[in-house]
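Handout, section B. The chain below has 131 residues.
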Amino acid sequence: MAADKKPIIVAGRAYNSVEEMPTEVRRVYDLAVAAQNEADAQAGIKVIFNGKEYAGLESMPEDVRRLYQTQQQSMETYRDFSIDSTTPRAAKITAPAALRMEERQPFVAHYKWQILAALVVLIVILVVLLR
């Protein structure tokens, strides 16, 4: 090992370079490096929520952070949000948002009485025409 280069230690074993690692160890190492890089990249991200700027999630008050995380979860769950991430598209059209996002009954179950009435009328018309 070179004196100016630190060894790479993975699972208690030292390697001089990444190329020296077996395939499985290299995969674990790459995942760890990617996770660290992502954490470093997110560390400098500022969050603006409800018109206030925060240095990150950790700097938000607990209740604001909970509200922010709930909003983010909703966006991931429904994927029915506009570009500004604050107003659902459903709120921008005539139908109430609650009706657009709730689960609906199957067509036949929802319109069973209308379908039954239409069938009765159709039978009456057929009986009159076949006489």
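Note. The mean pLDDT is 76. Compare this with the example in section A.
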